[in-house]
Design goal:
- The protein is of the alpha/beta class.
- It contains 15 helices and five strands.
- A five-stranded parallel β-sheet has the order 2-3-4-1-5, sandwiched between helices.
- The protein is elongated.
- The chain starts with 10 loop residues before the first helix and ends with a helix.
- The mean pLDDT is about 85.
């Protein structure tokens, strides 16, 4: 059963959880804020399991009936509120799953816990409906709102919650976890860490992915042949990654790591800090043909392409704009 010690990084949040459980001063409403893959749901689940454990210690015992049900996600007093629609959680959903349920006392635990997994998808009307529950909830209620973008939450909601912001996990901590716990080879761990930028979930998924090699080969091809291939060929290459279930944003992150390596090598000529040490010949070639300003233009264009994809700009349009910059400057 997951324990507090199994949370990688996030030492401040672990300390706050320990102190609140030890003292019995558990708030009725929390916001856990961090990007997708940062571990929000894992932390919320561990906290919830501690709160329903029948032994009531600083860690869930993992042996009592409540712990076993909590681990199986069948505990009647831990309720996960998951969006039924892709982009939003509506007011009726909140009323049905929280507001109309909140006055029913816990079945067997001392607390009743609601974990809203994508709370930044709550519509403003749904957040307003939730507001009364945050203000007037019975003493046994704990509501955890998990958000990737805290700016989507109304200030009236935020002001009534304790906010825990998940921080990027240090590279050394990530590398130890990937290599010791998941048995990931050194080189692949380094690439995953650079790609993830402190996001544990991203690092784990990248390092363990069977499609890692396909994504890396595609990134190599785009960078190596940027000035020779047509834009349509480059778009088709990225499109082909769909069969490996590779997200376009993740692929763009990998290209960004490549160009950061190119910039580092061009500036210093050193290889120790490079992520893609094994591909030095490609890095040297691109560094030789590209200017500092050009590499910066490419990195900015990658960021803009990710923003366009998040804003639902047509894939071909976002990629064409990016690859035109890569052809000119990369």
């Amino acid at each position: 059963m997951p324990q507090l010690k199994d949370i990688i990084g996030q030492d401040l949040i672990k300390k706050q959880i320990t102190e609140s459980v030890r003292s019995g001063r558990v708030s009725q409403s929390y916001i856990l804020a961090g990007e997708k893959g940062s571990g929000k749901e894992f932390i919320a689940t561990v906290f919830a399991q501690m709160l329903v454990c029948e032994k009531g210690g600083e860690n869930a015992c993992g042996e009592c009936h409540s712990c076993k049900m909590a681990e199986a996600k069948t505990h009647p007093d831990i309720k996960y509120i998951i969006p039924q629609k892709v982009n939003s959680i509506g007011v009726e959903e909140v009323r049905k799953q929280i507001c109309n349920d909140i006055d029913i006392k816990p079945y067997q635990a001392p607390r009743k816990i609601y974990i809203v997994t994508e709370a930044d998808k709550l519509t403003p009307q749904a957040q307003n409906a939730l507001l009364k529950s945050l203000e007037d909830a019975p003493a046994y209620v704990v509501i955890m709102l998990l958000v990737s973008n805290i700016n989507m939450m109304l200030q009236t909601v935020r002001s009534r919650c304790i906010t825990w912001e998940l921080k990027p996990v240090a590279p050394a901590v990530l590398k130890k976890y990937l290599m010791q716990e998941l048995q990931i080879p050194d080189y692949r761990a380094d690439v995953a860490i650079a790609f993830a930028q402190g996001n544990l979930g991203k690092a784990r998924n990248m390092a363990a992915s069977d499609d890692f090699s396909a994504m890396q080969a595609a990134a190599q091809s785009v960078i190596k042949n940027a000035r020779d291939d047509s834009i349509s060929d480059m778009i088709a290459l990225v499109r082909s990654l769909a069969e490996y279930k590779v997200d376009a944003g993740e692929f763009l992150d990998m290209i960004a790591v490549w160009y950061r390596d190119v910039l580092m090598f061009k500036a210093t000529g050193e290889t120790d800090s490079l992520v893609y040490k094994e591909d030095l010949s490609i890095i040297r070639k691109v560094a030789r043909r590209s200017s500092y300003e050009g590499i910066e233009e490419v990195l900015q264009a990658i960021g803009k392409a990710k923003e366009r994809l998040r804003a639902n700009v047509a894939f071909e349009v976002a990629m064409e704009l990016l690859f035109s910059v890569i052809q000119e400057f990369g």
